[in-house]
Every structure is written in structure tokens, then in C-alpha cells.
Inverse folding.
């Protein structure tokens, strides 16, 4: 999870790293810190696309349901990495929540199995998949 957060921070404006009193920056820099702020979540999927995209602070609004999402995305084969903020849901319900990875200690070990969907990137807009 620290790698996901570090990648999102590197692709985002500095303001994101200052949010929550700089919690995300401290989380990445300090091996002993665990957990994410309650309003921040990490999601993962797979992609085979040759295209790549990254976006910081993208907002999506589902016209059918009215659901909103504010997220940052890094999509480069084989992974789609998305972080959401303000407690909002992910831009696509097929993304798998891996926020609990942040609770693992530096030398800790967690055995888990993930079934990740394979998504095709749709256009240039973050959070849009086929």
C-alpha cells in the first residue's frame, strides 16, 4: 500500500500530500506507520491495455445513479491503481478495495487471495473502463 500511496503522491499536486496534516507523506516515509485516514481508500484492478494514464484529483459523476467519486488514478499495465478521498466510493464498482493492506506492519505478513477484474481503459478520463 505504501507503494500505491507513493505513486499517487508523485502523480498529484503537492496539496494532496499536505492534506490531513501530511498524513499520506508521513505514512510513505515512515516504515512503522500503518493505516490510512478513514476517508481514504485504495483500489486495484488489472489491465492489458498498452495505453497508460494518470490523473490526480479526478471527479466522476454517474449520470444513472448520481453517485460521485473523487479519486487519483495510475493505470499502466498490468495494474490500475486508484485512491479515493472524502469517503466517496470508487469510480467503478469492479475495482477491488485493498485499503486493509495499509494495516500490515513493515515486517508483517498477510496471506490473502485477490480476484482482480481485468478492465480496459476507456478514453482519457480517469475512472472510465470497459
Amino acid at each position: 500500500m505504501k507503494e500505491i500511496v507513493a505513486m499517487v503522491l508523485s502523480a498529484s499536486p503537492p496539496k494532496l500530500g499536505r492534506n490531513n496534516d501530511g498524513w499520506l507523506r508521513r505514512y510513505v516515509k515512515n516504515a512503522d506507520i500503518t493505516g490510512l485516514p478513514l476517508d481514504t481508500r485504495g483500489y486495484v484492478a488489472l489491465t492489458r491495455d498498452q495505453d497508460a494514464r494518470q490523473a490526480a484529483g479526478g471527479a466522476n459523476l454517474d449520470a444513472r445513479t448520481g453517485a460521485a467519486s473523487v479519486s487519483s488514478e495510475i493505470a499502466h499495465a498490468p495494474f490500475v491503481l486508484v485512491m479515493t478521498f472524502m469517503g466517496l466510493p470508487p469510480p467503478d464498482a469492479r475495482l477491488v478495495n485493498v485499503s486493509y493492506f495499509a494495516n500490515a506492519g513493515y515486517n508483517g505478513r498477510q496471506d490473502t487471495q485477490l480476484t482482480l477484474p481485468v478492465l480496459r481503459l476507456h478514453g482519457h478520463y480517469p475512472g472510465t473502463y470497459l
